[in-house]
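ingest -> validate -> predict -> emit
validate: passed (alphabet ok, no gaps, 307 aa)
predict: started
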Amino acid sequence: MRDKFTIIISDVNGSKHYTVKQIIKKVFFYFFIAVVLVVALGVIWIKILLGELKDIEQRKTVYKKQSKTLLYKNMALSEKIKKMQNEIKIKGDELEKINDKISDLENTMGINSDSNESVDNRIDTLKVTSIQRQEFLKNIPNGSPVVFKGVSSSFGWRKHPVLKKKEFHPGLDLRAKKGAKIYAPADGLVEFSGYHKRSGYGNLIILDHNFGFKTLYGHLSKRVVKNGEFVKKGELIGYVGSTGLSTGAHLHYGVMYLQRFLNPYYFVKWNKDNFDYIFKKERNIKWQFLIKAVQSQILLSLQQEQK
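emit:
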C-alpha cells in the first residue's frame, strides 16, 4: 500500500506485522491509561491532603480555644498569686507588729523570752487566766470612782488654783457635780476617813488595797465609810463636794503604790475590756511579781476550799 510503513517482528513462533498507525494507537492508549491513573491517584492524594488539612484546621481551632482558656487561667492564676503575695506580706507585717507588741509587753512585765520560741508559747506565757484577771480587777484599783465626765486637772506639775503657786499635783481632779456618788474601785480597808485640814483635801478617805496599793478621795461633801471598815469593789464610800482648798465641786482622786504616787488616769481607763492597757502604760510597777502573787493567792484559796 502506498505510504504505508510496516514493521515485521519475527520470533520462533512466527512473524507479526505492525503498521505505524497501530503502534501509535497503542502508545496513545497506554498513555491515556497512564494519564487517567495519574489523575485518579492525584485526586485521591488531594482528597487525602484536604482531609488532613481539614483535620489540622480543626485541631488548630481546638488548640486555639485551649490556648485562650489556658491564657485566661494563667491570668487568673497570676492574679491569685499576686493576691496571695500581698496577703502574705500583710500577714507578715501583722505578725511583726504582734511580735513587737509581745516584746513590749514582755519587757513591761520583765519576762525574758527566747527569740526562737513560737508566738503561741510566748502568748501562753503572757496569758492571764480569767480567774487571775478577776482577782487583779478585784484587788487593784481600776475604773473611775465616779461617773466619768472628764478631767479638770491632770497629774503632775501645775499652778495651784487656790494658793496660786506652782506645785506638784499628786492626783487627778475628776469632773463631777456636788453630791455625786463615789464608789470603791477595788476591795480595800478604810485606812482614814475624816477631815484632813493640813493637806487641804477637806473630807478625805484613804483606802488601803492589796499588794501595796492605796487610793485617796479628797474634797468630799460626805463620807459614808469609817476607819477600819472593809469595803468591796463598787461599794458606795462617799459623795463629791468642795471641802478644803477647792474652787468648786470635784473629786480629787489619787493612786499610790508602795507609798509612791502614780498617774491615776491609767487606772481610771483600765477595765476588763482592755486588761493589757495598764501593763503598757504604767511602767513603774513590776507586774510580773504581782502576777505571781495573785497566782499564789488563787492557789491558796483553792487549797482552802478543798479542805
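The CA atoms of residues 17 and 149 lie 142 Å apart.
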